[in-house]
Amino acid sequence: MNFSKEELLANISDLFLTYGLRSTSMEDICNYLKISKKTLYHIFENKDDVVEQVMLYRLESIRKRTTPKKISKIGPVLVVYDIKKHIIENLNSRMPANYFDLKKYHPEVDKKIRTEKDKIMKSVLKGVLCVGIEEGFFKKEVDMELQMLLLNRQLSFLEELERPLDTDYPVPLLISTIVDNFILSISTERGRKEFENIKKEEKI
């Protein structure tokens, strides 16, 4: 079958989310895509290369969904709220296990992905905050660097979900509370009203 590079990475990403990084071999990828090993190794050097490119593809898809133009169209408060929902929905997939496997079995790739992930998430959040401030949803005096640092640090426990958390609170509630508090802490009165409307509509 003929795939574009993006289609190829999307399919392999689905495979990793179904069976995990560790459990998916190069042969499994070939069988799933119905391509020869020769073809696969012409595109990727090895398993590490596959994993790295798939992880970068996932990060790039986040960037594409959160351009300033799209943020303005959707609304900055809703964009942050949707990111929260996306994170919570991923808890029921093998996404957390993928990151655990990445750290344990592909440590060098993990270092690269963490660095790139930090850059992309910082870029996405900065874009959301800039649009939100410009449109009056977020406070002008917000220290963006500090807020982004705090949010990233608070959500960093997601990368350790293979280990039990020392808390009685369910993980989805923790994530929801962290992101909701983030939104409320940076919102103007207009932003708070928008936030409350989003929550009301979700309950309908």
From TrEMBL:
Keyword set, alphabetical order: DNA-binding
MF-aspect GO terms: DNA binding
DNA-binding region listed in the record: 25-44
InterPro entries: Homeodomain-like_sf (IPR009057), HTH_TetR (IPR001647)
Residue span(s) of domain HTH tetR-type: 2-62
Annotated protein name in UniProt: HTH tetR-type domain-containing protein
